[in-house]
Amino acid sequence: MANDTNNTATQHTKWVDYTKCIGCESCEAICKFLYGLPRIQMTETDDGLAFPLYCHHCEHPMCAKACPAGAIEKDPETGIVHHNQDRCRGCKAMKCMAACPFNAIYRAGGVVPVIKCDLCSDRKRVGLGPACMEVCPSEAIFFVTREELQKIKTKQSGSAQKLVMKQIRQMREKK
């Protein structure tokens, strides 16, 4: 696996259309049910609007660049940004968490220091998509190639994404 190879036609990502998200927490609940600790987490704006924090499987993942152990890598074929738990040494600085602009790497505690979404890789091997996408009642979660993503984004969803990013920045400043 490499960290910087990108082919937008084959690489997949998860994307939440915040104009469709109703804040029901189904995505977090199914992830917690399947994995014990959710890899997508709901949070709220100061105004009480609920929205999920999730890994965007970035084209150029800052978390992978920040990890001193090389425990986070991007698959150049699929685009999935994986966290290798065997390599992770749980550095006290938690550099991967600080580097993620989406607050999508979470403290796990115990033997595995951090967790992040892997787009349900186990489910993918048996022909299924990410569980959060499949249970979302408002069909706000998409599992698409980067090329397809550009086609489904709307002006409204872009504006909603900017509001969420503003809230994430404010959350980071409070830490």
Please outline the helices and strands.
Elements: E1 12-16, H1 26-35, E2 41-44, E3 50-53, H2 62-66, E4 72-74, E5 81-83, H3 95-99, E6 106-107, E7 114-115, H4 121-124, H5 131-135, E8 141-145, H6 146-152, H7 155-174
Antiparallel strand pairs: 1-8, 2-3, 4-5, 6-7
Give a description of the structure.
This protein has 175 residues and is an alpha+beta fold. It has one domain (12-174): 2-Layer Sandwich (Alpha-Beta Plaits). It is built from seven helices and eight strands. The strands form four sheets. The protein has a two-stranded antiparallel sheet. A two-stranded antiparallel ribbon has the order 2-3. β6 (106-107) and β7 form a beta hairpin. The longest helix has 20 residues, at 155-174. The radius of gyration is 15 Å and the shape is globular. The mean pLDDT is 90.
- CATH architecture name: 2-Layer Sandwich
Number of domains as seen in the coordinates:
1
Number of beta-strand segments = 8
Shape: globular
Low-pLDDT residue intervals, each spanning 5 or more residues: none
Question: How would you spell out the order of helices and strands?
Answer: EHEEHEEHEEHHEHH
In whole angstroms, the N-to-C terminal distance is 32 Å
Top CATH class: Alpha Beta
- The helix fraction, in percent, is 25-40%
Structural class label: alpha+beta
Gyration radius, rounded: 15 Å
CATH topology: Alpha-Beta Plaits
Query: How many helical elements?
Result: 7
Largest sheet: 2 strands, antiparallel
What is the overall pLDDT average? 90
The proportion of residues in beta strands is 15-25%
Strand order, sheet with most strands: 1-8
